[in-house]
Amino acid sequence: MSPVSASSQTLAIEGGSPVRERLLPYGRQSIEESDIQAVVEVLRADWLTTGPKVGEFERAFAAQLGAAHAVSFSSGTAALHAAVFAAGLQSGDEAITSPLTFAATANCVLYQGATPVFAEVSSDTLNVDPEQIAGKVSAKTRVILPVDYAGHPADLAAILKIARKHDLVVIEDACHALGAEVGEERVGGIADMTVFSFHPVKHITTGEGGMVTTNRAECAEKLRRFRNHGISSEARQRQNAGQWHYEMVLLGFNYRLPDFACALGLEQLQRLNGNLARRRAIAARYGAAFRDVAGVIPPAVRPGVNPAWHLYPIRLDLAKLTVDRAQVFRALRAENIGVNVHYIPVHFHPYYRERFGDRRGEFPVAEAAYERLISLPMFHAMTDQDVEDVIAAVRKVVGYYAR
Ligand SMILES: Cc1ncc(COP(=O)(O)O)c(C=O)c1O
């Protein structure tokens, strides 16, 4: 379909027929019969939590990513909290992170009584810019917390270089980037600690859930204690050893991922490579389709990386359109395309404005991106027809509003 014919169709928002009958969400899980069987088996067995599936899932996950250790958590947010704790982040410290992320990335720093310090993002990947990080390092900095936005790995080599110079810990928020590669290596064994989420819209799901991977045994030990109230042993170890005695050695939380969730994770993990391949094929199709749609800027990919494509965020070239992002968003929703926006910059949120003052205007690259971003549907269960519907709707709407 050429842009000319696309622009001649009446938009659904103006009373025309929508591209699809039913809403296509921007992301969703896929559950197969084998997932259900795996969960049911655990429900019929002895251990609903702190049982054998936890270690099985963790070992399989670490092996997939080439990391020495993996520690599971009840959510990606809990995993982030544990990681900043294990890095030694405490009251008075600072952690440098991206303003263009889900609030949980910065919130975990606040949980430890420390301060998130935002650094501007690069205009191509929208990942935090290492040069900007370097300019924010202070005597209080303890952690650098880059985010792999949309599944494109942050510039880890440059960030690790800064960290080693100043003796800082790098915690990679890879909640978007399970399976992303830098060269031949998967993220998970590159940063000091790497954090993943198993929310239903992610590459694999456990309902809610998260994981931290690390090559550092002392970090893995701290992470395990932190998720279990700060207690030095687990109930099953004590039962097996016929012991009742335990010691709480640090102030932890109950952030455990139950066995039936780990069983689901184990099943889903077997399909990770297939899920990644499908997401990459969808991204390639989108990229080819949008290359010559005036007004649409597809996401950039730097040489040497293979993104995991949690999201597919296009940016609108507003100079080429007669309307703003909000109108394009509404028009795409009317076509039954479940678009979304990732993210409202963290410093825009009322909580951050009240606590740290109104900092809007300080991060022009992130803020200009926010005004232009629209996340298109991206999930591994999308059919070819779903993908073509999204492309047709974008051409129809953007073509209609083209200058
Ligand atoms: C970048 C980022 N960090 C952290 C999280 C938190 O993960 P969870 O929802 O598993 O707590 C998310 C969740 O979507 C995220 O997108």
Layout of secondary structure:
Elements: H1 3-8, H2 33-43, H3 52-65, E1 69-73, H4 76-86, E2 94-97, H5 103-111, E3 115-118, H6 130-136, E4 141-145, H7 156-166, E5 169-173, E6 181-182, E7 185-186, E8 193-197, E9 210-214, H8 217-227, H9 235-241, H10 259-269, H11 272-290, E10 296-297, E11 305-306, E12 312-316, H12 325-334, H13 350-356, H14 364-372, E13 373-376, H15 384-400
Helix pairs in contact: 2-10, 3-10, 4-5, 4-8, 11-15
Bound molecules: pyridoxal-5'-phosphate.
Give a brief description.
The protein is built from 15 helices and 13 strands. The strands form three sheets. A seven-stranded mixed beta sheet has the order 1-9-8-5-4-2-3, sandwiched between helices.
Q: What are the segments in which pLDDT stays under 50 over at least 5 consecutive residues?
A: 1-7
Bound molecules: pyridoxal-5'-phosphate
What proportion of the residues is helical, as a percent range?
Answer: 25-40%
Overall outline: globular
Biggest sheet: strand arrangement: 1-9-8-5-4-2-3
Total helix count?
15
| Rg computed from alpha carbons, rounded to a whole number of angstroms | 22 Å
Sheet bearing the most strands, described?
7 strands, mixed
Structural class: alpha/beta
| Distance linking N and C termini | 19 Å
Number of strands: 13
Succession of helices and strands: HHHEHEHEHEHEEEEEHHHHEEEHHHEH
How much strand?
A: 5-15%
Mean pLDDT: 96
